[in-house]
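Protocol step 4 of 6: structure prediction from sequence.
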Amino acid sequence: MKRSVVALMVLCSCGDPSTGGATAESSASLDGGGCEEPVAWVLAADIGPLEEWLVPAGFAVRPLPLDRSAWGLRGLVVIGTDASAMPEYAEYMQAHADGLYYFVDEANVLLALRQDPEVEPVPPFLPSTHDALRGSADPSPLVVMRTDHPLLAGLVQDGEPLSWPGGAASDAFVEQAGFEVLLAGSGDGRDAALLEGAYGQGRIVLTSLPLDRPRGESTIADAFAGEFDAGVLTVKLHHAGRFRGDARHHVQITAVVAVDDMHR
């Protein structure tokens, strides 16, 4: 299998006070210093593993400010694996969950990694247009649902999707609405491991892949990470609005797995 470099990168843009974002004066402190490099705002118990793949990708990595809304920030917000177990996570979501989808709406990207479904069955930051329910399923084998998607470029070889046995992901999404399923444990999109949703000008990306897990804990997970390579990243998730002109990246909502009744 050839090694891929799949990127999740947001080109920063300065704030516009008319939209409720950062003012021109304050945007330098919020988006990485005059828009010179993209910023990854991280909410995680340990930033270190995330820095290992975000810094080589060209990001300035900073802790997500917990005393204010993400609305007005620029770039990428990353919620690390099992961050939902942190006491400060619950406090932040209670106060500022809606600010995360306002952040996405202004051409930014939110990436949430694997969470324990017993702790957080439903992400609390989703807008009313989207839903997702985590379960305990191991999506096996892990199947590429769309071979022409830029984020999956490293998972396709000679036009054919690669697949993996169990162990690459866990706690898959068993129900969803408003998302496109990109990786799943079956060909109809059930037991989803990677979801992408469009909201406003931005993107919400949910995954059951523990991409920030230290290498060496799982041989299969390490092998998958070597192909997906979410850290070194080359197919850059640009300033999300640029995808509107790219037919390859139009979100094609997967309707097979619908949410009947989610109790938040």
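Step 5 (inspection) to follow. The chain has one domain: 17-249.
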